[in-house]
Design goal:
Blueprint: H1 5-20, H2 28-35, H3 39-51, E1 55-58, E2 64-67, H4 76-83, H5 107-124, H6 128-131, H7 135-142, E3 159-160
Antiparallel strand pairs: 1-2, 1-3
Helix pairs in contact: 1-3, 1-4, 1-7, 2-3
């Protein structure tokens, strides 16, 4: 199993937002620079994360984004389910099905299904807060400062989720 780059960057973006919360927001250009990816790609990721309720965003000159919920409420499994299109490990697990002559008798499919269930069970135990236990060290490693920008995303007008 391999996660897409999209999910990888989505998790990194959420980790960054968690490290900055609640002191400040972060901009798409900052995140794109930190992770070395195109702003257009980061814009799509942030939009999807906001649509799913993981982030809250504000447009405009003082715009940016921050967590939509507490980091301790966001489970890694939930993020991956929202950002990955397919977790089928073998053809017979795909929705389109398969014409494999072993369907219904194959032990491999059952083994891989148990493995996938164990994978998600483990990720259900982990929250975003668990991934960023020392925010200041995390930010320092990325070359960011917690208080660099003043506005934070709270209940202020102009927020979108």
């Amino acid at each position: 199993m391999r996660l897409s780059g999209y999910s990888d960057y989505a998790l990194r973006t959420l980790m960054l937002a968690a490290a900055l919360a609640p002191s400040r927001t972060v901009t798409i250009s900052e995140v794109a620079r930190v992770f070395g990816i195109a702003e257009s790609h980061m814009r799509k990721i942030v939009h999807e994360l906001a649509r799913a309720g993981f982030l809250r965003s504000r447009r405009g000159r003082r715009g940016g984004f921050g967590l939509g919920r507490s980091a301790s409420e966001i489970r890694v499994a939930e993020v991956l389910r929202a950002t990955e299109a397919d977790f089928a490990l073998v053809e017979c697990q795909r929705a389109s099905g398969s014409c494999c002559p072993l369907m219904g008798r194959c032990r491999l499919e059952r083994l891989l299904e148990r493995a996938r269930a164990a994978f998600f069970a483990e990720l259900e135990r982990v929250t975003l807060a668990d991934l960023v236990p020392a925010p200041s060290s995390f930010l320092r490693d990325l070359g960011l400062e917690p208080q660099k920008r003043a506005p934070s995303l709270g209940a202020a007008a102009g927020l979108r989720s």
